[in-house]
Specification:
Elements (H helix, E strand, L loop, with lengths): L10 E2 L7 H8 L4 H10 L5 E5 L9 E5 H15 L6 E4 L6 H13 L2 E4 L14 E6 L1 H5 L8 E6 L6 H7 L5 E8 L4 E7 L14 E3 L4 E4 L4 E5 L8 E11 L2 E7 L4 E3 L2 E3 L1 H8 L7 E8 L3 E9 L4 H8 L12 E5 L12 H19 L1
Parallel strand pairs: 1-5, 4-5, 4-6, 6-7, 7-8, 18-19
Antiparallel strand pairs: 2-3, 8-9, 9-10, 10-14, 11-12, 12-13, 13-14, 15-16, 17-18
Helix pairs in contact: 1-2, 3-4
């Protein structure tokens, strides 16, 4: 079988293996999903089929070369200095690329990997200390008190709010935001979130690419990725960025999320960054049709109505005139993907339908 070698130092849930067959038998005791992925990984095929998360559209199945997945694992190991015998915690769904790549990194680099259920509180009840792990923002937010058990942590799949980021500054754990997608085999760039040294320059706030990856922009100011070790072709994204150099950039938002309100172009993600300093719940802003402005900016907050939040939002001085939401809605629960990403369009569409139904009842 191709890919039949298991690194001599690889361990899964504290167990070593002398053969692939032994590993596959044991993986069934963890979960069917882990077993199925490892079966695919050790098959004769040169590629793996992966389902995208569906946060920006309908989930689709794409194929990724195993060679490229290995290269991605090696790049992560080199960037974060994670050598063989690294202890790592997998708390993400293995059905998607982020979870799959934690397994690949462990197999390729010889890590000692423990797998736990991908819950919203993955560190609850865990006493062991780990060198490395990966989480989504919701897991991070719910694990701040337990993060001392992780030495290095990457966070992807969404934006870390300013409130949570402030809570990270006193922690010894090295925490990084990541930029990537299924097509790039998880992260191709990282940005530090804490543990800043006073001598460092402001460049620490930028995303910096991993080795052998360079970037540019297209005529929409969207990121173009050149990564020959993980993709046969240039990757053109819908992410608007500010280029700092050919290996550094700032992420500004999604091209397809831009709101045209009264001929003023608004980037929801930039407004959300400002709002994240005062809103602790999950939220997002969006544009809805308006007879006067074309589109008006609205804010959707997950959870019960909070009068204090409304007052703070309206008085937030960092917001310019058009950035102040025209309407603020509180929703019990957002629609999300299986990887806990907010499905903005679906959530907004359902809420608008609800409002229209309410108007019909009133009329």
């Amino acid at each position: 079988m191709k890919n039949s070698r298991v690194h001599k130092n690889f361990q899964l849930n504290e167990k070593s293996f002398s053969s692939v067959a032994e590993l596959l038998v044991f993986s069934k005791t963890i979960s069917e999903t882990v077993f199925l992925f490892l079966s695919d990984w050790f098959s004769d095929d040169d590629f793996i089929k992966v389902t995208t998360s569906g946060s920006t559209g309908k989930p689709t199945v794409i194929t990724l070369k195993k060679e490229f997945m290995k290269n991605s694992a090696l790049a992560t190991g080199a960037f974060f200095d994670l050598k063989e015998n690294t202890t790592a915690l997998l708390c993400l769904p293995v059905a998607y690329i982020a979870g799959k790549m934690m397994l690949v990194r462990a197999l390729v680099l010889g890590w000692h990997l423990d797998v736990v259920a991908p819950t919203s509180e993955p560190l609850k009840g865990i006493e062991k200390t780990y060198d490395f792990s990966a989480m989504v923002p919701m897991q991070l937010q719910n694990s701040v008190e337990e993060l001392h058990t992780i030495k290095k942590l990457i966070v992807g799949g969404g934006v870390v709010t300013k409130i949570v980021e402030a809570q990270l500054q006193s922690l010894k754990t090295e925490i990084f935001a990541t930029y990537g997608m299924t097509e790039t085999i998880t992260h191709i760039a990282v940005r530090k979130l804490n543990n800043f040294r006073h001598a460092e320059t402001t460049s620490v706030s930028h995303y910096k690419t991993l080795s052998n990856i360079t970037i540019s922009q297209d005529d929409r100011n969207c990121l173009v990725i050149n990564a020959p070790k993980i993709s046969d072709t240039q990757i053109i994204t819908n992410d608007i960025v500010r280029i700092i150099s050919n290996i550094e950039f700032d992420w500004l938002g999604r091209f397809d999320n831009v709101i045209n309100s009264g001929a003023v172009k608004l980037h929801p993600e930039q407004i959300e960054e400002k709002l994240s300093a005062i809103i602790s719940q999950r939220f997002f802003v969006a544009g809805v049709p308006d007879s006067l402005l074309g589109e008006k900016l609205v804010l959707l907050i997950e959870g019960p109505i909070e009068k204090t939040s409304i007052d703070k939002i309206k008085s937030l001085k960092t917001l310019s005139g058009f950035e102040i939401p025209k309407e603020i809605y509180f929703i019990n629960e957002f629609i999300e993907t299986k990887t806990k990403k907010i499905q903005r369009k679906k959530t907004l569409d359902i809420w608008i339908e609800h409002l229209n139904n309410m108007n019909d009842i009133v009329s």
